[in-house]
Design goal:
Elements lengths: L3 E6 L5 E6 L3 E7 L2 H23 L18 H4 E8 L4 E6 L9 E7 L3 E7 L4 E8 L9 E4 L6 E4 L3 E6 L4 E7 L3 E6 L5 E6 L3 E6 L4 E7 L5 E6 L5 E6 L4 E5 L1
Antiparallel strand pairs: 1-2, 2-3, 3-4, 5-6, 6-7, 7-8, 9-10, 10-11, 11-12, 13-14, 14-15, 15-16, 17-18, 18-19
């Protein structure tokens, strides 16, 4: 097993979920005392036979067995049932307190792309039963901007632009596009501008949710976009050490 990040027992303490760093969760069964001692007895008998046979070839398996029968190891107490692989990196796990009648347990996974998944755990398999998708971005938010009348909010990340109703916090539209670092919603809320990592300005039609044009604006990251006070255009600032004034 690789480096373990989190361990969780179920309510009855007969199942253990081990979150391995990355995308893996290992589900282990906790054996009862009788089964644990039986496994320990078999393991030590095989080990003793191998050791003695290596010395003189004459073996009495019962010799030395009872002296170590109570020294249990991890492999005697836990049995691997299933290895679950998530689609994205796992942030946290939890075994649900209520055990379903049709399975051994239910496991909740929180993924680093804002998804919450529920898996049904069987004796040697698992089934994804539910996915809850949050409305936010799947990566770091790079900019947020309000419209001039405060009725619309735009946020950008490395692969998407989202428009929100700020009064109730609901996502109205998502546009999958370039790496947005800055933004501006134009008057009357019909169009929006997004300054990108590639130095371009994307012109977004908010109503249709499409990018209608891409302007090669700068030779570096477009860090900020601001409107000109007279309403006749806007200003952009970039890592190429230039500030540019634009007209509508």
């Amino acid at each position: 097993m690789s480096k373990v990040a989190t361990v969780r027992f179920n309510n009855s303490r007969n199942l253990l979920a081990c979150q391995v760093v990355g995308k893996i969760v290992e589900i282990l069964c906790v054996l009862d005392e009788t089964e644990s001692k039986r496994k320990a007895r078999i393991h030590r008998k095989k080990k003793f036979v191998k050791q003695v046979a290596g010395v003189n070839g004459d073996v009495n398996p019962s010799i030395g067995e009872e002296s170590s029968i109570h020294n249990l190891t991890v492999s005697n107490v836990f049995k691997l049932l299933h290895t679950l692989r998530a689609s994205k990196k796992i942030c946290s796990i939890s075994l649900c307190l209520v055990t379903p009648k049709s399975s051994l347990a239910s496991l909740a996974l929180s993924l680093n792309n804002n998804l919450l998944e529920i898996h049904s755990i069987e004796s040697n398999s698992s089934t994804k039963t539910l996915t809850i998708e949050l409305q936010g971005h799947r990566s770091d938010v790079r900019s947020v901007t309000l419209s001039s009348n405060n009725t619309l909010l735009m946020s950008t990340s490395h692969n998407a632009v989202k428009f929100w109703n700020p009064s109730i916090g609901s996502c109205l539209r998502t546009i999958d596009y370039g790496y947005g670092l800055s933004g501006l919603i134009l008057p009357r809320n019909k169009y929006a501008l997004v300054g990108t990592k590639g130095g371009t300005i994307e012109i977004i039609d908010i109503g249709s949710g499409t990018c209608i044009d891409v302007v090669e604006a700068h030779g570096g990251f477009v860090r900020s976009i601001a409107t000109i006070l007279d309403g006749g255009g806007f200003v952009t600032e970039s890592e190429d050490h230039e500030v540019k004034f634009w007209g509508y």
